């Protein structure tokens, strides 16, 4: 199994990226192809014990920076680590591509150079969100700002398959993000999508969900448009960081509180681990003909390792083939329904 990794992408590249690749190659026994500038990668590899590990270097002379315009950069830099990595999976030289670089750049490179699964209308970015019951998968979280109800329906099918095959949830509960739990609440997109989701037999659709209910674990898969999903996730991340900072500041103001924190150190560490998204790996761009994983820009070595783990699991479970079958079944179902608009 060969997983291509963008060694140049991310806030902590190349140090954290290479370190995560070394960890993944050792723990999971996979080949991790490091895509990027050879001299830079070689210098980082020398810092680690790589004996017996498969860590080939794939040259790419250009880098797409975090602040560049995605589509323009992908076209202007054909020898960038992102483009080279995507072309590797397109040519079946690797089974997945992982990058912590410019998210828009990864999306653009994936769509332009990898292409969609037959029948997929829009690829969607699916990411994990911690809940009281474990994790909830949310899609789309940024690939498509504007969508139609049929796109939401496909998101639900892809999300259910991913939750079942990669996360291990036997019967994923699917809900659509809205401003009210009752049927009929929401904008036109939500109302029309709700009707389609009710008519999709391959998913377990349980209705609307409000944003405040997602952390309780009421759903395993939440579908929405990329604009709304991205805002929800980023707001939640920022709120969590704010709470952590405020708690830390208040504890430091009191010696007694600092003593209490010291006594509760192990419990506080477990809380941090439950909230740490590094253990969840990256977000997957579902709907492409090859696996593309988008890790967080601030990913450390642990996050990169887990992003590679996510790729490995998706490959082993043959997620792409199962998504293709799920979409084909949906198309067959639609074809079997007579068009009521045709009068006889």
Note down, in words, how this protein is organized.
The structure is a single chain. The protein is an alpha/beta fold and 344 residues long. The protein folds into 2 domains: 1-120 and 287-317, Isopropylmalate Dehydrogenase (3-Layer(aba) Sandwich); 122-279, Isopropylmalate Dehydrogenase, CATH 3.40.718.10. It is 47% helix and 16% strand. The chain has an 11-stranded mixed β-sheet, with helices on both faces. Strand 10 (283-286) and strand 11 form a beta hairpin. The chain is globular and about 60 Å long. Pathway: Lipid metabolism; phospholipid metabolism. It is found in: Cytoplasm. Its EC number is 2.3.1.274. It catalyses: a fatty acyl-[ACP] + phosphate = an acyl phosphate + holo-[ACP].
What attributes characterize this protein structure?
344 residues; alpha/beta; 2 domains; eleven-stranded mixed β-sheet; disordered C terminus; phosphate:acyl-[acyl carrier protein] acyltransferase activity
Helix content: 40-55%
Number of domains: 2
CATH topology tier name of the largest domain: Isopropylmalate Dehydrogenase
Uncertain runs with pLDDT below 50, 5 residues or more?
A: 340-344
Round the mean pLDDT to the nearest integer and report it: 89
CATH architecture verdict of the largest domain: 3-Layer(aba) Sandwich
Tally of DSSP helical segments: 12
The best one-word shape is globular
Largest sheet: 11 strands, mixed
Spatial strand order of the main sheet: 3-2-1-4-11-10-5-6-9-7-8
Organism: Caldilinea aerophila
InterPro entries: FA_synthesis, Phospholipid_synth_PlsX-like
Main location: cytoplasm
Function: Catalyzes the reversible formation of acyl-phosphate (acyl-PO(4)) from acyl-[acyl-carrier-protein] (acyl-ACP). This enzyme utilizes acyl-ACP as fatty acyl donor, but not acyl-CoA.
